[in-house]
C-alpha cells in the first residue's frame, strides 16, 4: 500500500500562513488528486454523512453506518416486538457477545474464540486487571500503569489493586519495559494515548514484560479499527477496547475483552455472572466457569446496543486494516502539512508525534484558546473535540478524505486569524 | 382498589378437569366480565401485541411498547446519524443514567436522586455488595445470601466476598432475620424468588438487619413494576434490579442501582469509572467521586439500550403501582383457579404461595414433563417459560387480561390431556 498515497510533488514548505493562506490553491489541488486516487474513497458512501460537515470526531463517536437504522428497525420491531422471548434463541441474541467478538477479532489480529463483546471498557479493565493478577500468581505485587492513560483505566486499576492487595506504579509507557521486574504482575498500557495520539510500542513492551515474567494488558480504544494491532502475533495476554470510535458501533456500544487462548483455562473473572457459567440455564447454585472466551461474559447482554454494533461491523467487509493504516498516515501527514501552511505562526503546536511509528490516527494540537476555538470550528462545520488545552482531530480513513483534511486546516486558520467563514 | 376485581360469584370449585373442562363456560364468562371492568385494560393498546398469542413471559422479557420503534428511529437516525458527537450534550445522552433512574424511582418507592441506570444486574450486584461491606465497616465479616436466589447474585456475592475477605452464609430468605448478628455486614436478598414467585418480607427483613447493625441489599428484578416495593419507606440501604421484565425496557436493557441518600457520601464503589468522577471531563489522574447517585455510574453509558428503556417507561405515565398490584393478584388468583378447574389432577402442582402477602406476579407450576409441555404451549400460542422442573407464567398487569389467563389454563389442560388445539 505504500505507494497508494504517494505525493505528486514534494510537500509544500511549511509557510507561516499569517494572513493570506499562500499555499491554499496548491494544497486544494493536491487533496483532490489524493482523493481521486484513494482506493478507500468509496467506503464513505456506507455512512450517513453530509457534505456540509467535516467530521473529525470519529475517534470519539464513529459516524452512523447507513444500513444500521433499517437493521435496528427489524431488531426492535420484529425480533423484540413480534418474536419477543423466542429471539434469545431464534434471532441469535444469546450468542451475540462471542459472535461479535469473532467479528472484531480480525481487526485486532486475533484468531476466533478469544474475544467477547459486552459491558463498558471500564468494567472490562477491571476484569482484565484482576484476572491478570491471578494469572501472574503469588509473589508479584506490582501493577504498572500508563500514567498518561485515559483516566478510567487508572481509576479502575487503582480499585483493582486495592482489592487484590497489589501496588500501583504509574509511569510513562516508554518506561514500562525498563521497569518490569520479578515483582511485576502486569502492566496496563494504552496502545494509543487519547490526548497526544502517540502510538506506543506494543510488540516491544509486551516482549519486555514477558521477559520479566509479567503479563501485558493493552487498552485498544484508540487503535482498534485505525491501525494493525497484532494481538496474537505479539503474544498479548489480555486486552480491552471500546467499539464506538473507529469501529462505529454507536454511542456507548459494548466494549470487548480479549483473553489469549493460552490463558483461558486459568482466566478467573472477578465478575463471574451467570452468562459465563458452563450451564447458564441449569441455574446451579455453584459457579462453574464456561470454557473459552465466553468466560469473560457477565450479565444479560444489552441486545439493542450489541446488535447495532454487529451491523456496524459490516462496513469492514473486504477492508484490510493495512490499507486503513496507509490512508490514516497519509491523512494525518497531509493535515499537519496544511496546518503548517495555513495556521498563523505560534497559535497551535502539534503534540502528535511526527514519526509514523509513533502516531495513531488522530492529530492533537496544543492551543491556548482551545475552549473558544473548538466551538467556533464546530459552528463552521469542522467537528473535532476538546480536551484540556487541546484541539483533537480524529481521522477515520473509511470516511474522511484529503479534501476534508485540507478544509479543516483552512477553517482552523480562519478561526485563529479571526477571518469570517468563506 | 380492593373491590375493582371483586368476583361476581364465589370462585368455581376446583374440579378435577380430567377430560371435559367442566367449568369452562362459566370461567370464560367470568373472565370476560373481569376484563370489561378492568380499569387497566386500556393500557394493553400501548404495546405491540397480537391476539393470537397470550404472552405470559413478561417476567423474562417485557413486550415492546408500541411507540418505542419511532423513538429509536429518531435516536439512531437523527441523534446519532446527524448530530453525532453533539448529542452527548444536545440530546441529553450524558445525563441519561440519572434521568432514567429518576423515572424508575417512583415505581420502587424512592425519592429522586438515588437511582442510576446502567450496566447489568450482575455488575450492579458487585457494586452493591462490595460497597455495603465498606459501609458496614470493620469487624463484620459475614455476608448473608439468599440461597434460593437467581444464581448470578450468589456467584457475584461469592466473588465479592473472596475479594473483600468476607464469608458467605447462604440461607433461606425466611431465615435471614434470625441469622443477622453483630458479625453480619449485609444480606443480599431477592424480593421475589425467580423460580417460585414467592414474595419475601422486605420490610421485616430490612428491619431485622438494621436491628443487628447490618445493611439490607435487595434485588428487585422480579418485583419492580409488578408490586409496591417501598425502598425509602422501609429504609432499604442498597438495591439493584433489571429493567427488561416488568419495566419493558427491551432485551438486556440497562439495570439500575439504588443507593439510599443517607449512604451516598460514604458509597465507595469498586468500579469507580470515569463517568462517576466529580469532574469527568477534567481528565484528572486521581479519582474524586461525584456526589449523589451518579457515583454509582461506571463507564460510557450504552445509549441505544438506555434510550429505548427511557421511552419504554412512558407506559407508566398515570399508572399507580397499587393498581397494578391489585390486578396482578386478581390475575394470578384467577389463573390458579382456572388451572385447578381445568388441568388433569396431579399433573401440575403450584409452588407459588396462595397467600397474597407471599406472592409476586408470576405462577410457577411444578410439572414432571415441563420440558415437553412448554414448547407445545408455545406452539399453541401460550408463551411462558421453562425453568428446571417448572412451567413459569408471568402476569404483567399492563397488558395481560383475565381472558388471557383463562385461555392459558385451558390450553395447558389440553396439552396435558393430549387433546388437540381448539
Automatic annotation (TrEMBL), chains A, B:
Gene3D superfamilies: Aspartate Aminotransferase, domain 1, Type I PLP-dependent aspartate aminotransferase-like (Major domain). Its cofactor is pyridoxal 5'-phosphate. It comes from the Bacteria. The modification N6-(pyridoxal phosphate)lysine is found at residue 245. It is an enzyme of class 3 (hydrolase). Pathway: Amino-acid degradation; L-kynurenine degradation; L-alanine and anthranilate from L-kynurenine: step 1/1; Cofactor biosynthesis; NAD(+) biosynthesis; quinolinate from L-kynurenine: step 2/3. GO terms for molecular function: kynureninase activity; pyridoxal phosphate binding. It catalyses: L-kynurenine + H2O = anthranilate + L-alanine + H(+); 3-hydroxy-L-kynurenine + H2O = 3-hydroxyanthranilate + L-alanine + H(+). The keyword Hydrolase applies. Its EC number is 3.7.1.3. Pyridoxal 5'-phosphate binds at residues 121-122, 150-153, 219, 222, 244, 274, 300. GO terms for cellular component: cytoplasm. Keywords: Hydrolase, Pyridine nucleotide biosynthesis, Pyridoxal phosphate. InterPro entries: Kynureninase, PyrdxlP-dep_Trfase, PyrdxlP-dep_Trfase_major, PyrdxlP-dep_Trfase_small. Homodimer. Catalyzes the cleavage of L-kynurenine (L-Kyn) and L-3-hydroxykynurenine (L-3OHKyn) into anthranilic acid (AA) and 3-hydroxyanthranilic acid (3-OHAA), respectively. NCBIfam families: kynureninase (TIGR01814). This is Kynureninase. It comes from Streptomyces filamentosus (Streptomyces roseosporus).
Amino acid at each position: 500500500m505504500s505507494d497508494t498515497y504517494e505525493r505528486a510533488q514534494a510537500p509544500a514548505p511549511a509557510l507561516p500562513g499569517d494572513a493570506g493562506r499562500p499555499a491554499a490553491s496548491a494544497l486544494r489541488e493536491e487533496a483532490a488528486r489524493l482523493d481521486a486516487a484513494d482506493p478507500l474513497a468509496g467506503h464513505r458512501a456506507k455512512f450517513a454523512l453530509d457534505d456540509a460537515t467535516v467530521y473529525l470526531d470519529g475517534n470519539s463517536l464513529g459516524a452512523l453506518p447507513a444500513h444500521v437504522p433499517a437493521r435496528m428497525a427489524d431488531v426492535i420491531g420484529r425480533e423484540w416486538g413480534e418474536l419477543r422471548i423466542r429471539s434469545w434463541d431464534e434471532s441469535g441474541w444469546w450468542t451475540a457477545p462471542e459472535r461479535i467478538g469473532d467479528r472484531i477479532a480480525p481487526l485486532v489480529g486475533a484468531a476466533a474464540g478469544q474475544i467477547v463483546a459486552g459491558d463498558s471498557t471500564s468494567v472490562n479493565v477491571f476484569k482484565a486487571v484482576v484476572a491478570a493478577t491471578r494469572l501472574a500468581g503469588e509473589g508479584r505485587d506490582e501493577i504498572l500503569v500508563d500514567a498518561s492513560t485515559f483516566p478510567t483505566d487508572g481509576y479502575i486499576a487503582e480499585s483493582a489493586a486495592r482489592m487484590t492487595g497489589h501496588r500501583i506504579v504509574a509511569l510513562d509507557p516508554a518506561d514500562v519495559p525498563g521497569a518490569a521486574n520479578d515483582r511485576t504482575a502486569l502492566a496496563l498500557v494504552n496502545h494509543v494515548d487519547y490526548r497526544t495520539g502517540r502510538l506506543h510500542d506494543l510488540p516491544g513492551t509486551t516482549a519486555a514484560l514477558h521477559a520479566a515474567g509479567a503479563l501485558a494488558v493493552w487498552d485498544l480504544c484508540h487503535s482498534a479499527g485505525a491501525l494493525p494491532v497484532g494481538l496474537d502475533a505479539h503474544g498479548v495476554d489480555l486486552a480491552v477496547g471500546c467499539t464506538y470510535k473507529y469501529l462505529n458501533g454507536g454511542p456507548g456500544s459494548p466494549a470487548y475483552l480479549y483473553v489469549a487462548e493460552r490463558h483461558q483455562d486459568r482466566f478467573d473473572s472477578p465478575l463471574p455472572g451467570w452468562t459465563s457459567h458452563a450451564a447458564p440455564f441449569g441455574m446451579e447454585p455453584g459457579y462453574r466457569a464456561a470454557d473459552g472466551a465466553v468466560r469473560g461474559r457477565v450479565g444479560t447482554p444489552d441486545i439493542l446496543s450489541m446488535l447495532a454494533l454487529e451491523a456496524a461491523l459490516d462496513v469492514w467487509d473486504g477492508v484490510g486494516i493495512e490499507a486503513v493504516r496507509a490512508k490514516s498516515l497519509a491523512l494525518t501527514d497531509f493535515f499537519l502539512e496544511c496546518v503548517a501552511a495555513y495556521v498563523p505562526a505560534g497559535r497551535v503546536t502539534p503534540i502528535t508525534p511526527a514519526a509514523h511509528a509513533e502516531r495513531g490516527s488522530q492529530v492533537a494540537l496544543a492551543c491556548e484558546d482551545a475552549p473558544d476555538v473548538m466551538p467556533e470550528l464546530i459552528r463552521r462545520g469542522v467537528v473535532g473535540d476538546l480536551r484540556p488545552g487541546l484541539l483533537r482531530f480524529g481521522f477515520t480513513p473509511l470516511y474522511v478524505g484529503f479534501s476534508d483534511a485540507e478544509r479543516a486546516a483552512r477553517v482552523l486558520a480562519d478561526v485563529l486569524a479571526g477571518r469570517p467563514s468563506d
